[in-house]
Amino acid sequence: MRVCLASTSPARLMLMHQAGIDPITIAPDVDEDAVIAAVEAAEGRTLAPAEHVLLLARRKAAAVVARLADDDPEFDGLVVGGDSMFEINGEVLGKPHDPEVARRRWHEMRGRTGILHSGHAVIRVVPGQAAHEVHEVAKASVTFAADVTDAEIDAYVATGEPLQVAGAFTVDSLGGAFIERVEGDPSTVVGMSLSTVRRLARAVDVEWTSLWAPTDV
Prior knowledge:
The protein is α/β, with parallel strands linked by helices. It is built from seven helices and seven strands; from the N terminus they run E-H-E-H-H-E-E-H-E-E-H-E-H-H. Strands 1, 2, 3, 4, 5, 6 and 7 form a seven-stranded mixed beta sheet that branches. Strand 3 and strand 4 form a beta hairpin. Helix 4 packs antiparallel against helix 5. It is globular, with a radius of gyration of 18 Å. It starts with a strand and ends in a 14-residue tail after the last helix. The model has no long low-confidence stretch (mean pLDDT about 95).
């Protein structure tokens, strides 16, 4: 069974590899800000975090399915799309990009608990048949250590790691030492809930173990 990850996220790819899956990766051609702005304007409201990440996960997966139809019409397998955002104190935090933004966030986050929302869309693609999509949102709470010093924050930001990740932190790399507790599927915080993807795969009649890459014995 082939798998296509509708993402070029190193963290999501790492998770799949660790789970025994060797997907192809395709970057989805989705203007995330434009998609959210259009839907919020049409509905006259701000999307809740769970709605936000699910909408983008679905759009990303759908965009890659459309591309596969042109570039690889014989593709038979699953397309997996995802999106994440971090919410703390009622504020949604995406990727900070700027060091000063990341530094300010860490000063505000230490000693507090936030929620990582992760949207998942799995689409079963079979040549000559209509695609079948299922989707779900997973979430996990993250508690940051209260004793993180200003010097540690400065050093962490200087590595560049927190600049390109939702919430300005990682749990599986340098940022992990500053996190005291995770409640929920830990892989959700890394970038994708493997247990959720497994459940969605089964919903489209695909067993998780059939996705494992062959291993040499």
